[in-house]
Specification:
The chain has a five-stranded antiparallel β-sheet with strand order 4-3-2-1-5, with no helix packed on it. It starts with a helix and ends in a 26-residue tail after the last strand. α1 runs parallel beside α4. β3 and β4 form a beta hairpin. The protein folds into two domains: 87 residues; 68 residues, no CATH class. The chain is of the alpha+beta class and 186 residues long.
C-alpha cells in the first residue's frame, strides 16, 4: 500500500513540475507558478514520511525493477527538482521584497514565506574562506527581537515575495493536474 501511495505522489509531483515548467516557459505568471510550487511542497510533505529511514532500509534490501529502489527514485526526483529550482534565475532590484524558494533555505533567517529586502546586488560574489557558496546579494531581515540585520546570500535561492493574502488556496482550484489529489485522502 505504501509503495502505491509513493508512486501516486511521485506521479502527482511530476505533473505539477511539468505545469511549473510549462508556465515558466510560456505565461511566466508568477502567481500561478507560486500556486503550483505550494502544491508541490504539500505533495512532498506528504511523501516525506512515507520514505522514512526504516522504509529506505527495507527498500534498499529489496531493489525494484532495473535495480533502482523507490527511495533512490524519490531522491532523483528531488535532486532534479532542486536543480531546476536553483537554476531558475530571477533578477532583483534594490528595495525589492524577496523570500526563499521552497527547498532552498540554508540559513536561519529569513524563515520560509517571510520577506527580506534587497539592499544590494553584487556584480561579483564575495570571496569567502570556504567558497562553498556564492554570496552575491545583501539582504535586510528583521530578527526575532525586532532588530534589522544585514546578511549576504546566494540570490539563486530566492524568488519575489508574495504576501500570504495574495496566495489563493491551491487545493481549492480545479485543474487536471490536481484531479488525483483527493483519491489519496479517501
Amino acid at each position: 500500500m505504501r509503495d502505491i501511495q509513493i508512486a501516486d505522489l511521485n506521479e502527482q509531483v511530476e505533473r505539477v513540475n511539468q505545469m511549473i515548467a510549462l508556465h515558466q516557459q510560456t505565461t511566466q505568471d508568477h502567481l500561478t507558478i507560486k500556486q503550483y510550487e505550494c502544491l508541490r511542497s504539500e505533495l512532498l510533505e506528504q511523501l516525506q514520511p512515507l520514505v522514512s529511514v526504516k522504509t529506505a532500509k527495507q527498500q534498499a534490501s529489496a531493489p525494484q525493477k532495473g535495480g533502482a529502489n523507490i527511495v533512490n527514485v524519490v531522491k532523483e526526483k528531488l535532486l532534479a527538482e532542486a536543480f531546476n529550482q536553483y537554476n531558475s534565475h530571477q533578477s532583483f532590484q534594490v528595495g525589492t521584497l524577496i523570500q526563499w524558494k521552497m527547498g532552498m533555505k540554508n540559513r536561519p533567517k529569513p524563515n520560509y514565506n517571510e520577506p527580506a529586502i534587497v539592499m544590494n546586488v553584487l556584480s561579483a560574489p564575495l570571496d569567502t574562506p570556504t567558497n562553498t557558496e556564492k554570496l552575491d546579494i545583501k539582504l535586510g531581515v528583521i530578527l526575532e527581537n525586532g532588530e534589522f540585520a544585514l546578511f549576504f546570500y546566494d540570490k539563486n535561492r530566492f524568488e519575489p515575495y508574495l504576501p500570504s493574502n495574495q496566495l489563493p488556496n491551491v487545493m481549492a482550484q480545479t485543474h487536471p493536474v490536481l484531479s488525483n489529489q483527493n483519491s489519496l485522502r479517501e
